[in-house]
Design goal:
This protein has 17 helices and 13 strands. The model has no long low-confidence stretch (mean pLDDT about 90). Helices cover about 40% and strands about 15% of the residues. Helix 8 crosses helix 14 (about 275-280). The protein has helices at about 5-15, 30-35, 50-55, 60-65, 80-90, 105-115, 130-135, 160-165, 170-175, 180-195, 205-215, 225-230, 235-245, 275-280, 285-290, 295-315, 360-370; strands at about 20-25, 40-45, 70-75, 100, 120-125, 250-255, 270, 320-325, 330-340, 340-350, 375-380, 385, 390-395. It has two domains: about 5-125, P-loop containing nucleotide triphosphate hydrolases (Rossmann fold), CATH 3.40.50.300; about 130-395, no CATH class.
């Protein structure tokens, strides 16, 4: 088993809260993680029809059978349990009494907000990070733009192969063909999970909508254009984007709020969380196809953003990430706000660093009035260094 970085955060959090809730996309490794982190706990999966029937018909009896702490897996299948759990923890506030896990963020968090607000800590588990896959410590977000990481050995894998495979654990644990597995994963998501989250009447239109979103990854979200192309209403497009976001398939990068006396873009940018699934949706069939694909740069941006999200979420922190763009086209791909300071980060998929890679960062430094403002560049090459006071990271440092 590959140890998950979030495990330390999970066990530490359980020492302070009576309920800890772990959410994330289906097949991100939640069950494996909670059972490894709490091996002495009782375990019940509400996915099992018999167990679920017992929990629904006799919730008090179901919960009373556990003499000590318990893991309740896929708990969004029985939202009625939340009120009973609330009663138990209100009477006996024992830290780590319940570990809840579930795949559908939308339903699970709605139930928590109604019954367990203030009683449950909420953590999010995304698929493997690159650091977890290669067995090293993750790059600390706080150090970005300030420290050149220690140069590691030769790269273990090719960038295009890494992006093409994606990061879902089962692909790597079982050495599966990523396209076949991701195809089954996506069909299960559309045919089962989406129907359970919200009533989507036209699955074919929803699938077309998802693929149109894939073609717009790394771009400003224009719901009107997206709705027109998908043949749906603007309201439906907004609702379906919310479903994708709640399912951890996509993430929206919000614009940076500081204006520098410039007219700013106010729309968010759309990214997919997993590059393997993104390649599947774009019908990219091999790593070589990806190398030549028109969206290679946007896919690489998705990878970098996803790694930063994982780094923050694995620490139990809310990611403070945004992008900056003005009406004249000047842009910073990602702005990282840490400790009251903004770090500008540019992302380039090219393997060779060119001078124009730094033009956006130079412009940013001029805007903030600090020629030494922390700035960084992530690129598709194999060496990390500093240039013009800017920290340059090879992709494998993330």
């Amino acid at each position: 088993m590959i140890k998950r970085t979030i495990q330390t955060t999970l066990t530490k959090t359980a020492r302070g809260y009576p309920v800890v809730t772990l959410t994330g996309p289906r097949q991100s490794g939640k069950t494996t993680l909670v059972r490894a982190a709490f091996p002495s706990y009782d375990y019940a999966s509400l996915e099992d029809p018999d167990v679920r029937s017992f929990a629904l018909e006799d919730p008090r009896g179901f919960l009373s059978q556990f003499g000590g702490p318990v893991i309740l897996d896929e708990v969004q299948r029985t939202p009625e349990l939340f009120s009973y759990i609330q009663t138990i923890v209100d009477q006996d506030d024992i830290p780590g009494r319940f570990i809840l896990s579930g795949s559908q963020n939308f339903l699970l968090l709605r139930s928590i907000s109604q019954s367990l607000a203030g009683r449950s800590a909420i953590l999010h588990l995304l698929p493997f990070s690159l650091a977890e896959l290669v067995g090293r410590r993750p790059l600390q977000v706080l150090s970005i733009g300030r420290e050149v990481p220690r140069q590691g050995g030769p790269l273990r894998s090719d960038l295009m192969e890494t992006l093409f495979q994606g990061f879902y654990p089962r692909i790597h644990d079982k050495h599966l063909d990523p396209q076949k597995w991701l195809g089954s994963y996506y069909r299960t998501y559309v045919e089962r999970d989406v129907r359970e989250i919200v009533n989507v009447g036209d699955i074919e239109s929803f699938s077309r909508f998802v693929r149109l979103c894939a073609g717009r990854t790394g771009q400003l979200l224009n719901l009107t254009s997206l709705a027109n192309d998908a043949g749906i209403t603007h309201t439906t497009a907004r609702r379906w984007i919310s479903i994708l976001e709640a399912s951890f398939l996509v993430t929206l990068l919000r614009p940076y709020h500081r204006n520098f006396n410039k007219r700013l873009i106010k729309s968010p940018k759309l990214y997919f969380v997993d590059t393997g699934l993104l390649c599947y949706l774009l019908r990219i069939r091999t790593p070589e196809d990806l190398r030549l694909h028109a969206l290679r740069g946007a896919i690489f941006e998705s990878f970098v953003l996803s790694e930063l999200l994982k780094s923050s979420l694995n620490r139990g922190d809310e990611p403070d990430l945004s992008f900056w763009r003005d009406s004249t086209g000047h842009e910073i791909d990602i702005v990282i706000e840490e400790a009251g300071e903004a770090v500008a980060l540019e992302v380039k998929s090219g393997a060779t660093v060119a001078s124009d890679f730094f033009s956006g960062l130079r412009y940013w430094r001029g805007l903030v009035g600090d020629p030494l403002a922390p700035a960084a560049l992530v690129y598709g090459g194999d060496r990390s260094f500093r240039r013009e006071g800017i920290t340059v990271y090879r992709w494998s440092d993330l």
